[in-house]
Amino acid sequence: MYAILQVLKLRLQLILRDRMFLLLLVLFPFVFVFILNATQSFQKQPIIPVAVADEDRSSYSKLVVDRFAAKEGIRVLRVSREEAYRLTENYRVEAAFVIKEGFQDAIMDEEMDKTVEMLKNPGSLSYGILGEMLGSEVMRLSANTGAANKTERLYQLYGLKQPATGSLWERVWNYADSQWEPKPLMTIDYKEMSGNDVQTVNRVTNVSNAMLTGMGMLLVFVLLFVTLHSRWLLEERDNGTLKRIMSTPGVLWKFYVGNIAALGLLSLVLVCICAVLARLLFSASLVFHPLQYALLGAYTYAVIGLGMFFSAIFKTSRQLETGAPLLALLTGFVGGCFWPFLPLSGFSEMLALCTPQGWTLAGMKLLISNDYELADILQNILILASFGTALFAYSFYRIRRQAAS
């Protein structure tokens, strides 16, 4: 055990002096943040953020904003006009509404035109629904006021006696308003296209596309990181270190395990950096379930085995450095890392499960949606661990043969 720890310490020291390692350690999280930010701007949001600026500050405008904020599936930010423009331009809200000064007076005069200004960002897909939701509340106030005004005019026209207690106008307004409860006059059904079919769905979804995309990118980065740093095997073979180690019985496997442990530890550092950045910058928890740690551990074990396999079969470090990005992109593409939010079926699903990314993402989707059986997750972990063990065994066998020859 002491010999393995010494090899681990030595390998970490050598890697930390490597300029490529420092470049990748900075570059990967930067690219990760860029992709996560772009994805989060255009994903199907479980809660739609919308800004409202109330410039009228009347009882009517306050009532509209309060009722709008109480609707399901939206989160209302009460801001100034300038802040509403800024949030919309920066894609922080789907749309923004400015209730102009004089709103209550216009409603009392039964005028609704140009009382509310709507702003939307170019990528907004739900601004139309948001406009209908706010517009229904404005229409509700206008209809109540119109009914009260018309009733009052009719009473005056025909000389009818008004109620002895209370205001006729307020009684009619309240009665008209009560007709909107318990169910409003207008409701919205949400539907999604699935192939050639249209299905009714719940507006609120438990699966975050940004989280899945972030996880997919993280899997690609870990594979690329590991394969690029598996070239130590080729370097030690070329400079004769493996042949010298073979002269001492029982040392080669310790040397092998120590270097693998160093790669595993550095991969853990990369995962932690990306997870912390996602949490601090986007309030997104990439890893929130204990079984996710187990899945990521099994995946890292599998891709280190893959890195050792390619180091054992490639002849030079240059071949490995050229093939590693291609390998990461190809397996990431096949495994579904670049579109993890899309469902896979048939041949595409079978192809994805030929890669460690496919098995990892399959387990991650079940955990993120909270729709899983423990046996299913354990099966994925076992398959990844078996995949890595088989590659470790083959690469170690090949290394021994190369060192002995």
Automatic annotation (TrEMBL):
GO terms for cellular component: plasma membrane. The keyword Isomerase does not apply. It is found in: Cell membrane. Residues 20-396 form the ABC-2 type transporter transmembrane domain. The keyword Magnesium does not apply. The chain crosses the membrane at residues 21-39, 210-234, 255-281, 293-314, 326-342, 377-397. Keywords: Cell membrane, Membrane, Transmembrane, Transmembrane helix. Pfam families: ABC2_membrane_3. Its main location: membrane. This is ABC-2 type transporter.
